[in-house]
Predict the structure.
Amino acid sequence: MAGRDALIEDAAVALDRIKAGRHPQSLILVGLRGVGKTVLLDRIRTDAETRGIQAIRLETPEDRSLPALLAPGLRAALLRLRTRAGLSDKLKRAFAVLRSWIGAVRISYGDVEVSVDVDPEPGSADSGDIEHDLPELFTALGEAAADRDTAFVMFIDELQYVSEKEFAALITALHRTSQRSLPIAMVGAGLPQIIGKAGRAKSYAERLFKFPQIGPLDKDDAINALARPAAREDVAYDNAALDAIIDATKGYPYFLQEWGKHAWAAADASPIALGDAEAATVNALAELDASFFRVRFDRLTPEEKRYLRAMAELGDGPHRSGDIAEKRGRKTQSLGPVRSSLIEKGMIYSPAHGDTAFTVPLFAGFMKRTMPSLQQ
Ligand SMILES: Nc1ncnc2c1ncn2[C@@H]1O[C@H](COP(=O)(O)OP(=O)(O)O)[C@@H](O)[C@H]1O
Ligand SMILES: [Mg+2]
């Protein structure tokens, strides 16, 4: 992984503190699509496991409730503690509280499928109000982890899809356990709208969490990301080819990988030359247009497509909402609902008040290619 040493090192420090229950702080990796959040999250998870932390990997929350995501992982994590050294009192209690909580969330959320085969602890974490119950559950879990000299860390990707109410409960729960120095925390990843969403859910969230920003690779790291895998096969790149690819991809890891693949396919011999890089740009864009960009486009309503098309007319962005409205031939206010639904779908975000930008790099170019006319 090119260019992420400092982030990995910071995360390792955070993991050590979580494990020690020393002001444990949760992290949320923030960045655009294709910047490398998921691979970084996986790397941090491996580092957590190496430290003897119980890493709990959750599926992406796009269509499922937070309780449905949490329940199986928390149950599995408790079971792992049990098989190591029998059942301590704290662990027994954690199982009972988890059982109570699952009993309650089963009623309020239709998609919770896991069950726990112990007696519940009535009155704990079972009020049915998630913001009341999740802190009680996390406290019991954190106490069980501390008792075993380990920690629970939940890894949640695509965190922007968690509903605001459930996010509020998660923040409250992590706040409670952090105040009590219990070794339980979260490492999440999400699109930039996650920061505002966290702040709206709980105003103190911005102090409670760290939000490491994951950006595109700088020039040296981008060169490494391209040249190192090729060098392993004894293939080199011309400087002109590297410059062209870095220019076209803007240093986004996912795009570097795709351009590298196509440049490799285009080249007859080492070194990969400018002509190969230019062929890669044509072929990579054609492939992305048919897949990566397309799947996102297909989820949009006609009105949302027109909004993004107007945005694209202005270039990569960010753009003032008023300028987008003008391109669209509408009043800014009347576009509020479509803008909100595009943020909710993870297509755009607001980097600063009144500004709007794409969450998918290079999406402006795709919109123009796929909808040649602004009036479509
Ligand atoms: N630092 C990096 N160096 C090289 N390749 C990377 C790096 N980060 C990500 N990648 C590659 O880019 C692609 C996109 O990464 P991913 O983690 O899925 O992005 P995101 O989750 O932010 O959308 C992956 O295939 C990954 O292998
Ligand atoms: Mg991802």
In short: The chain is about 55% helix and 10% strand. The two ends are 42 Å apart (CA to CA). The pocket of adenosine-5'-diphosphate (ligand 1) is lined by residues 1-4, 31, 33-39, 225, 253-254, 257 (CB under 6 Å). Residues 219-290 form a domain with the Helicase, Ruva Protein; domain 3 fold (CATH 1.10.8).
